[in-house]
């Protein structure tokens, strides 16, 4: 084979690998939408920890909370279980249970028409909230780094770098252009197993409700549940920035989801305490 043919083959292989990486990511984004729709069939527990750091990166304070989420007729409802590792006091437990009971009674009193209208509206809002993710395959230049194993799963390892000069079509996608990432995607299911990301510009971050400076670290992990759905397992963010216009912050925030289980709407909702 001549040198020119070798070069042509190399260029063709590079283009194929880049296109393959983009197609892998595109499929994973589509499946993410499916997962979030199926999630309404489940109830789960979430534990959130927030640490405020000093100038040396050591925790100077820590707060945590734990709650259960149930989705009733497509509508998520939280019941707080613990604060800072301690179960709620009896009065607070009763208050949380009463809120959930009232919500269930209200939903049970809906007419069929009212229920269909509410579910359609909520579904439209959920789709709108996650629509920006569909732009991910266009936002980045992807490179297939290779293959690895994570917890026994064969995964592709893909790096994602924002495309220079790209203008986001969806306003919520604009901050993604300030993030570079590495993705581990399950080869069998095309699902996100792990994402590690770093900010390369100042972004708004909902978990912090703040503005994060460049250099913030973000981690997201998913797990397979009941051999039918992939759902969040862990989200972690650390970095410095500002809360509002003035207050400087240095924080770590971690959210862990667990105890996923199928939930029957017609079952009686009882306290877990």
Q: How would you characterize this protein structure?
A:
The chain has 273 residues and is an alpha+beta fold. 29% of the residues lie in helices and 44% in strands. The chain contains 4 helices and 13 strands. It has helices at residues 3-38, 90-108, 112-130, 136-139, and strands at 42-53, 59-72, 75-83, 86-87, 140-150, 153-162, 179-186, 192-199, 203-205, 210-212, 217-225, 229-243, 247-262. Strands 1, 2, 3, 4, 5, 6, 7, 8, 9, 10, 11, 12 and 13 form a 13-stranded antiparallel sheet that branches. A hairpin with a 2-residue loop joins strand 3 and strand 4. The longest helix has 36 residues, at 3-38. It starts with a helix and ends in an 11-residue tail after the last strand.
List the helices and strands and how they pair.
Layout: H1 3-38, E1 42-53, E2 59-72, E3 75-83, E4 86-87, H2 90-108, H3 112-130, H4 136-139, E5 140-150, E6 153-162, E7 179-186, E8 192-199, E9 203-205, E10 210-212, E11 217-225, E12 229-243, E13 247-262
Antiparallel strand pairs: 1-2, 1-13, 2-3, 3-4, 5-6, 6-7, 7-8, 8-11, 9-10, 10-12, 11-12, 12-13
């Amino acid at each position: 084979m001549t040198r020119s043919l070798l070069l042509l083959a190399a260029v063709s292989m590079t283009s194929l690998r880049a296109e393959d990486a983009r197609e892998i990511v595109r499929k994973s984004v589509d499946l993410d939408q499916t997962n979030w729709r199926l999630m309404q069939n489940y109830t789960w527990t979430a534990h959130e920890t927030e640490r405020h750091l000093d100038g040396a990166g050591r925790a100077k304070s820590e707060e945590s909370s734990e709650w259960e989420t149930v989705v009733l007729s497509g509508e998520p409802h939280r019941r707080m279980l613990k604060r800072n590792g301690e179960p709620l006091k009896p009065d607070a437990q009763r208050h949380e249970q009463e809120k959930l009971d009232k919500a269930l009674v209200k939903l049970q009193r809906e007419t069929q028409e009212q229920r269909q209208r509410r579910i359609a509206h909520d579904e439209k809002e959920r789709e709108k909230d996650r629509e920006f993710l569909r732009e991910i395959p266009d936002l980045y230049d992807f490179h297939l780094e290779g293959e690895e194993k994570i917890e026994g799963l064969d995964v592709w390892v893909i790096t994602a770098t924002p495309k220079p000069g790209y203008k986001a079509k969806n306003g919520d996608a604009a901050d993604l252009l300030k993030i570079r990432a590495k993705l581990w995607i399950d080869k069998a299911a095309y699902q996100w197993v792990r994402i590690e990301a770093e900010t390369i510009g100042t972004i708004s971050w909902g978990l912090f409700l703040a503005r994060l400076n460049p250099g913030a670290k973000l981690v997201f992990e998913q797990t397979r549940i009941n051999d039918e759905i992939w759902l969040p397992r862990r989200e972690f963010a650390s970095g410095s920035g500002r809360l509002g216009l003035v207050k400087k912050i240095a924080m770590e925030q971690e959210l862990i989801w667990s105890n996923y289980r199928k939930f029957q709407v017609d079952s009686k909702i009882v306290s877990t305490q």
